[in-house]
């Protein structure tokens, strides 16, 4: 299934927007695009929602026909338990996370121990934890960690663009992680020369216009056959004005949806 998420509306729910979008607004815009999946990712405010607010959010999603996923960072058991509780309330069956946070950077051995503590309750609840590929943890280490924990409810959230910053070839990341993928963040990227031709900038571009070999990703992972969702994200830099940036963000959402639907 194709979905949108909070990163697809990054600038529209930021404090720079004149009228920042709420989660309810983003859910409605997702439905308006004909999409039935939304990932609430790295949206810390949700931890402060009351039980009534969470019930209302779930009710709205149900009324709109939008399935929810969640995303956070870190592998500390108490933190993941909080997100598991959110997932159960919101009907989400996938929680994306990352190994490191700004405050906690466990070794791989420590991360394995923490995940072994956490995964049994995820298994009991039928919720999958998907650890994202990114530059702070090399993809071979991430695969080794998933293999070592060996839980049916632990997988990988594949985002090969992130690993470019660690000088990993996206094709290698895709092939290495493919058997363990539980979710996909779909975004394209490109390098452009900086001013004066001194160095490069790595930033997002609309799907199908950059360096990501998306056809290879689909062939290697086979998400449709395996029931793996694709969540659209962007690396969209701030333009001259926030209004121009928001307009472009919405254009990218529409064009990226068209691209994925054509595959």
TrEMBL record:
Annotated Xylose isomerase-like TIM barrel domain residues: 34-238
Signal peptide: none
Positions in coiled-coil regions: none
GO molecular function per UniProt: isomerase activity
Gene3D superfamilies named among the record's database cross-references: Divalent-metal-dependent TIM barrel enzymes
Keywords of the record: Carbohydrate metabolism, Isomerase
Protein name: Sugar phosphate isomerase
């Amino acid at each position: 299934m194709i979905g949108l998420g909070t990163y697809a509306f990054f600038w529209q729910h930021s404090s720079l927007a004149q009228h920042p979008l709420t989660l309810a607004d983003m859910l409605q815009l997702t439905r308006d695009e004909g999409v039935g999946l939304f990932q609430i990712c790295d949206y810390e405010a949700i931890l402060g929602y009351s039980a009534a607010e969470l019930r209302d959010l779930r009710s709205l999603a149900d009324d709109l026909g939008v399935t929810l996923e969640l995303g956070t960072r870190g592998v500390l058991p108490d933190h993941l338990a909080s997100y598991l509780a959110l997932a159960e309330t919101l009907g989400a069956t996938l929680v994306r996370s990352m190994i490191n946070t700004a405050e906690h950077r466990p070794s791989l051995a420590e991360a394995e121990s923490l995940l072994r503590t956490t995964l049994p309750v995820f298994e009991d609840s039928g919720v999958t934890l998907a650890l994202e590929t990114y530059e702070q943890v090399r993809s071979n280490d991430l695969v080794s960690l998933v293999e070592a924990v060996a839980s049916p409810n632990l997988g990988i959230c594949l985002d090969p663009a992130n690993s470019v910053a660690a000088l990993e070839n996206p094709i290698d990341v895709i092939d290495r992680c493919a058997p363990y993928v539980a979710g996909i963040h779909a975004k394209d990227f490109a390098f452009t020369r900086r001013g004066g031709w001194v160095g490069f900038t790595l930033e997002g571009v609309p799907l199908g216009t950059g360096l990501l070999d998306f056809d290879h990703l689909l062939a290697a992972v086979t998400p449709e056959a395996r029931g793996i969702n694709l969540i659209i994200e962007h690396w969209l830099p701030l333009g001259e004005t926030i209004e121009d940036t928001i307009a472009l963000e919405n254009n990218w959402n529409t064009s990226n949806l068209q691209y994925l639907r054509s595959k």
